[in-house]
Amino acid sequence: MLAGTNAVNLTDGIDGLASSVSMIIIAALSIIALNYGVYEIATLGFILCGACLGFLIFNLHPAKIFMGDTGSLLLGGSIVVMALYLKMPLILLVVAIIPVLETISVILQVMYFKKTGNRIFKMTPLHHHFELSGWKEGKIVSVFCVITLVFCIIAILLV
To answer: Which of these, 30, 10, 26, 129, lies nearest to 72 by C-alpha position?
Structure first.
């Protein structure tokens, strides 16, 4: 629960990234819930997707409103609760690939820096590494969303 909520919190750092990636993950979990007849989770998920869409209107680059810890922790907690309610906690490793990679990048960076004094990435979480490598915010959000979508489709097909 703690890791899942914090993973989305780490993903929040570029305009529209956490909300768009979370919306795709929540939509995938909602579709899985529909397939298994767990309508209360599907309803919750689609409500959260609508909230994310409404928020994205004001959060796309350049953001006029920021999510902050409260919003990202809510989204992360909701994703974890949905997976747990569906009795599929391991599916989070597939559908939430971007938050997982963001968290792993931070863990690796801290461990490697403490051991060697050098860095693996220019900056963590991972989206900041790409930002410092010259990628525009819109490109990072788009690429991360496409990766999330592909992994969510794989997860839906697997279950």
So the answer is: 10
